């Protein structure tokens, strides 16, 4: 069903792996120490207090009004585009099943119910960024390239928990695996065919884009697939004070806002029935059995996209969105498994890093 926010839910999309777990066999992750657990508890508690103050502020009200109008307009535009495609290819549409497992969606559903809502997540600065992060990716919003799958239109809104204002100019890295569970830009055991060395130079389903005046970064992608031991998810990293290069890549800066975002299991299951997802032979891990997600859910955190279908079935595309709170005074060093250079991809020989240090970011 459609997930509609009715109360202020403050959650974290910064997910740590439990002790002895290795993400994709690349980055080992260590258990949280008592000091780190206490620091994390204090960080999240302060974030909750800040967001409660934001909820009734004038800035929050104005931002929500703009958010409702923008997302409603985007949904209308995407649906109109879909209708035009149907008119151009009637035979294909007639032969396609539009049955949806979701309930409660009608053409009269109020846009404010679908798109109104509060900040849903707090991104923590000191976390594991997940497998296969590649530094220096292309600045772009459409990251599909030639990958097949269910179209996904994702919007991530970034709010500063200290000011209640949207964060403008934060470059948000956004990446995930393809429909059969393979990440581009990395050659490694467990990531598709490890003998295919050409994957190091591929860039599909990776990109970053700056947030606009409303703190929103928008992406056109495909719905992510799955791989063994992990539920379906998307990785994000926010960076600032870096350099936009002439080849339209982004380099350097501080990387301080890290997270993994998830989808409802009903939606995942429906997508997995379609091709090419249905050809993926890797073992499926549900949200309920994902160790990273379950660790955070135990603390009443809920890093899930809200969404609507753009037609009668997932084949017509998915519009998904989430609002995320960040503390722009915090920063950390991020490790990368590889780097995209002007000569192609390069795997890290040991551990490469980007960012570091502190200071205020954009929008402060």
From TrEMBL:
This is Intradiol ring-cleavage dioxygenases domain-containing protein. Residues 354-364 have a biased composition (Gly residues). Residues 345-364 are annotated as: Disordered. It comes from the Eukaryota. It comes from Phytophthora cactorum. InterPro entries: Intradiol_dOase_C (IPR000627), Intradiol_dOase_core (IPR015889). Keywords: Signal. One of its GO terms (molecular function) is oxidoreductase activity, acting on single donors with incorporation of molecular oxygen, incorporation of two atoms of oxygen. The keyword Signal applies. Residues 137-231 form the Intradiol ring-cleavage dioxygenases domain. The keyword rRNA processing does not apply. Residues 1-23 form the signal peptide. It holds the Pfam family Dioxygenase_C. CDD domains: intradiol_dioxygenase_like.
């Amino acid at each position: 069903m459609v997930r509609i926010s009715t109360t202020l839910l403050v959650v974290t999309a910064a997910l740590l792996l439990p002790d002895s777990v290795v993400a994709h066999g690349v980055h080992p992750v260590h258990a949280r120490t008592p000091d780190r657990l206490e620091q994390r508890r204090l960080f999240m508690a302060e974030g909750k207090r800040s967001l409660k103050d934001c909820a009734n502020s004038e800035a929050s009200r104005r931002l929500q009004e703009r958010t409702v109008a923008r997302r409603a307009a985007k949904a209308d535009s995407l649906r109109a585009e879909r209708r035009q495609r149907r008119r151009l290819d009637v035979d294909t549409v007639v032969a396609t099943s539009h049955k949806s497992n979701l309930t409660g969606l009608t053409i009269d559903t109020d846009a404010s119910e679908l798109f109104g809502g509060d900040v849903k997540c707090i991104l923590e600065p000191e976390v594991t960024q997940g497998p296969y992060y590649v530094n220096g990716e292309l600045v772009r919003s459409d990251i599909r390239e030639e990958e097949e799958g269910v179209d996904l239109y994702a919007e991530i809104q970034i709010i500063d928990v200290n000011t209640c204002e949207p964060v403008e100019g934060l470059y948000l890295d956004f990446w995930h695996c393809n429909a059969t569970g393979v990440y581009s830009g990395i050659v490694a055991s467990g990531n598709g065919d490890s003998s295919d060395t050409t994957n190091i130079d591929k860039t599909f389903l990776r990109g970053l884009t700056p947030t606009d005046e409303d703190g929103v970064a928008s992406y056109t992608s495909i719905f992510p697939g799955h791989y063994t031991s992990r539920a379906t998810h998307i990785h994000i990293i926010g960076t600032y004070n870096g350099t936009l290069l002439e080849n339209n890549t982004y380099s350097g800066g501080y990387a301080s806002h890290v997270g993994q975002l998830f989808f409802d299991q009903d939606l995942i299951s429906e997508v997995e029935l379609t091709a090419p997802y249905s050809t993926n032979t890797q073992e499926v891990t549900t949200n309920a059995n994902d160790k990273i997600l379950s660790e955070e859910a135990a603390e009443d955190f809920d890093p899930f996209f809200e969404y609507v279908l753009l037609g009668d079935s997932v084949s017509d595309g998915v519009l998904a969105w989430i609002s995320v709170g960040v503390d722009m005074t915090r920063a950390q060093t991020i490790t990368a498994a590889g780097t995209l250079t002007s000569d192609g991809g390069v795997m890290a020989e040991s551990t490469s890093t980007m960012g570091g240090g502190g200071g205020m970011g954009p929008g402060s």
